[in-house]
Amino acid sequence: MTDGLTRLLLIGLDAASPALLAQWGRDGTMPNLGALIDRGVSGETRGIEGFYVGSTWPSLYTGLNPARHGVHYLVQIVPGTYELRWKPGAAFVDGTPFWRVMSDAGCRVAVLDVPLTRLESELNGVQTVEWGSHDSLYRFQSSPPDLVTELLTRHGAHPTASGCDAERKTARDYADFVEALVRGIATKATWTRELLARGGWDLFTQVFSELHCVGHQCWHIHNTEHPAFDASLAVELGDPMRTVYQAVDRALGDLLGAAGNARVVVFSSHGMSHRFGAQFLLADILVRLGVTAPPRPDATAVVARVARSAAAVVWRRLPHALRRPLGVVRERARARSVAPPAPSIPADAPLSLCFPLNNGLAVGGIRLNLVGREPYGRLHVGSEAREFCDRLERDLLEIRDDRNGGPLIARVLRTADHFHGPHHDELPDLLVEWNDEVATGSTAIGSGAGAVVRASSPKIGMIEGANDYGRSGEHRPGGWFVATGPGIVPGTLAPVSVLDLAPTFARMLGLNMPGCDGSVIPALCHDSPA
Predict the structure, then answer these.
(1) Could you report the per-residue pLDDT of 463-484, keeping only the tens digit for each?
(2) Which CATH superfamily is domain 8-275+474-524 in?
(3) CA distance 33 to 484
(4) What pTM was computed for the model?
C-alpha cells in the first residue's frame, strides 16, 4: 500500500523508434530522456516473433504470448469457420493485465490510455481508455465514469480524435497535423499532472500514442532516403518526428517533476521505421502459386468503405473552432457505437488449400485449410500439411523484388514452432515476413514514388501492384526502455523480451505474476519489497 507518494511511474512511448530515442536522448534533442539515460539503466526489448502490431500491447501487459492471450490482430478468424470477427468485442484479451494484479493486491493504480485495452471493472483507482490513442477500439471511456465528463469539460477531446490516417499533400496539411499532435501531448501532460497530484498512487502509468501517429504519417519527411522524401516540404516543416518527440520529452519532464522519488520506467512498446514490403500482393501471389482460389466480389464492403471515407473527409474539413465543442458530443456518440463490420477473407476459402489472413502490413498471415479444423478442409494434418508448407515456403522465398533484385520475403515462420497455448488455432499457421531493405512508397503520398512493387519468380511470373495506403512509416518488433529510482544501478542491459515487462512491473511493487511467459528483469527490481 502507498504511503502518499507515487511508488512506480510508467510512461509508455507507443511505437517510438528505439534508434531515435537513443540518439536524441544522447545528443540533447530530448534532454529529459537523456538525463534518465545518464542516471538509469537502459536496454532494448525483443518483440513478439512475427506479430508486430495487434499482439504487442496485449503481450506486454499480460506477459503472455499470442497463443495464450488470443490476440494477433484486430480482425481474426472465428475457429471452425471461414468468417472473420472484430476481435476487440467480447473478452478480447484472455489474460490478466499487470495493473489488475496490483489492484487486486490492494495497490492504488492509475492506468491512462494504455493502447488496446478494455475498461476494467472495480479497479482500485482510475482508468482512462482512448482519450488520445492511435487505435480507437472502444472510444473514450473512464473509471469512474464521471472522469470522462471532467476531462472533456476541462480539456476537450484530443485534437486528432478522428484518427491520424488521412490524405495529406501540402505542407499546411502536415503542419496542422503535427501541431495537433503537439497540442494533444501538452494537454495530456496537463491532465495527467492533475491526476498525479491527487497523490497516493502505487502505480501510475500513462502512454503517449502521438509518437505512433507521427511515425506512420511523417516518416518520409524525416528520412531523406525515403522514396517520397520532398526536400522542399522538409525545409518548410523541419522534421515532424523531431518536433513531436521533443514535445513528448517536455511532457516527460513535467511528469517526472511531479512524481517525486518514484521509480520510473520509460519504455517504447515496439519500433518504427520506413514502410516496407508488399502485403497488398500476398493474396495475388497465393493465387498465382495455385494454392488459393480468388475471392468473389463483395459490393456491400465497397459501399461501406466509400461511406466511411466520405464521413472522415467532412470531419477533417471542419474548422478547429467547431471541432472542439462538437468533439465532446462526437466522442460520447462514438463511445456508444457498435463495432465495425469485419471484412471478409480475400479468397474463396473453401476452394483453397490455404488463404491469407490479416496480420498487419509488416508480416502477412496464411491459414491452412485443414481437414477437421475448417468446414471444407483440403489438407490433412501431418505429413501432407508439412510437405505443403515446405513447398510453399520454398516458392515464397524464391520470389525476387524487382527494385533491388533481392528476395521480396525475408522469412516464412510457422507459428507452431514458436507459440503454444489454448488460442493457437486462432493464429495464422504461417507468417510471411516481408524484406525491409527497400522502402515502399504510396500512391497517396507525394508523387507516388516507390508505390509500385514488381516481383517475379519462375512460378508466379511477373506480378506487380501499387500500395495505396498513405503511411510512410511501419512497425518494427523491437522496443526500448530506461529505468531509474531507488535501488536501480545505472548501466546498459542486454536485450530482454517485451514479455518480461509485466512480471517486472509487478515485482517492482513486490508482487508476482505467476504463469507468465516472460521473466522478471533483476536489474529493475533490486530493493523491491518482498
Answers:
(1) 999 999 999 999 999 999 999 9
(2) Alkaline Phosphatase, subunit A (3.40.720.10)
(3) 11
(4) 0.90
